[in-house]
Amino acid sequence: MFKVVPTQNQTPTTKHFLFMFVSTKIHSISMQIPEFPNLIHYAIPFFVITVILEVLLTVKVKMDNYKYKDAAASITMGLGNVAIGLFTKGAVLVVFYFIYNLFHVFEISFAWWAWILILFAEDFMYYWNHRIAHQSRLFWASHVVHHSSKEYNLSTALRQTWSGSFYTFIFWIPLVLIGFHPVLILVQMSISLIYQYWIHTEMIDKLPKWFEAVFNTPSHHRVHHATNPQYLDRNHAGIFIIWDKLFGTFEPEVEKPVYGLVKNIETFNPVKIAFLEWFYMFKDAFTSRISLVNRIKYVLKPPGWRHDGTGILSTDMRKEWEEKQQSEM
After folding, report:
1. Burial of 9 (0-12, 13-18, 19+ CB in 10 A)
2. How many CB atoms sit inside 10 A of residue 83's CB?
3. What's the Cα-to-Cα distance from 143 to each of 101, 105, 123, 278, rounded to whole Å?
4. Do the beta carbons of residue 212 and residue 220 sit within 8 Å?
5. What is the pLDDT of residues 190-246, one digit of tens each?
6. Distances (CA, A) of 327 to 229, 248, 313
7. One-character DSSP codes across 168-183
8. pLDDT tens-digit profile of 113-157?
């Protein structure tokens, strides 16, 4: 463990500690760290080309009206996310290095087998991050951005949070403690995000059964974005749909999905899209005459929760749907 020992005439400041810790410990790591490009930045031209192609196919083949204002809002959210990520990814890397240098169980190198391990391990952590983002308003406040479009196309994939990268990285800290190198984790997180881009489309129906059984697909992810009661809070997968099947959150696509939120925000303003749920959450928590416990619950409980019992949760809507289905049998 790294320690700063002051001399008689010098007391270390936080600035001294961080500088000495990062400069000394990062360079003292024995394993060879390969150079990796910023994959998201390299993928941007591909995103642009495929969005344009989808627009052409939607208008010419399906004869639907492409919602350009919605797409513009989504792309703006994506550009904002990338710009903010220039800072937050560096900050997250420093935090990961800090934890990694303090303690990790195993010394996992950049060998080929490590990439297979991190593929599944990172996807497992993504599943739980994503699932909790639907079950706790603190995380929903940033994730709701991605669900705020009533459309489902490739531009929707670019509708990303401006606030989530400041705190949702905590879900990946266990990987650091296990011994996965911080760079390895961040690279795989980018790979996962890029994989999920292509599944945001209605142009692909269903893929071969073996692929649908293992991987997240457009069909599976359409369910996730839908507001149909039976589809709410289902299919949280990143790359592998197996986690949903293992933990009871899988739902196949049967009924045509209706996209958006249970209560849509009806705006294309990027700033409102980014922060409206944060405003509503803090308004509920701090402007009502309620106990401290209930204020905390407004932050931690699921979206829709109300201290007076009048709130309707997604689980309530699904239960009502299930009871209706049973009564009709």
Report:
1. exposed
2. 10
3. 30, 31, 17, 11
4. yes
5. 999 999 999 999 999 999 999 999 999 999 999 999 999 999 999 999 999 999 999
6. 16, 23, 22
7. GGGGGHHHHHHT--HH
8. 999 999 999 999 999 999 999 999 999 999 999 999 999 999 999
- State the first-to-last Cα distance of the chain, in angstroms, to the nearest integer: 64
Distance CA 63, CA 48 (A): 21
Kind plus residue range of the DSSP H or E element containing 214: helix 209-214
How far apart CA 29 and CA 135 sit, in angstroms, is: 38
pLDDT at 66: 74
Q: How confident is the model at residue 45 (pLDDT cuts 50, 70, 90)?
A: confident
Region 77-95 average pLDDT: 92
Stretch among 7-16, 115-124, 167-176, 292-301 having the lowest mean pLDDT: 7-16
Closest to 164 (Cα-Cα) out of 185, 146, 188:
146
User: What's residue 267's pLDDT?
Assistant: 96
Backbone angles phi, psi at 259, to 5 degrees: -90, 160
How distant, in Å, are the alpha carbons of 82, 190, 232, 271, 328 from that of 44? 10, 12, 30, 22, 48
The candidate with the shortest Cα–Cα distance to 191, out of 240, 233, 259, is 240
CB 263 within 8 A of CB 311: no
- Number of residues assigned to the chain: 329
Helix (H, G, I), strand (E, B) or coil at 305: coil
The rounded distance, in Å, linking the Cα atoms of 262 and 310 is 16
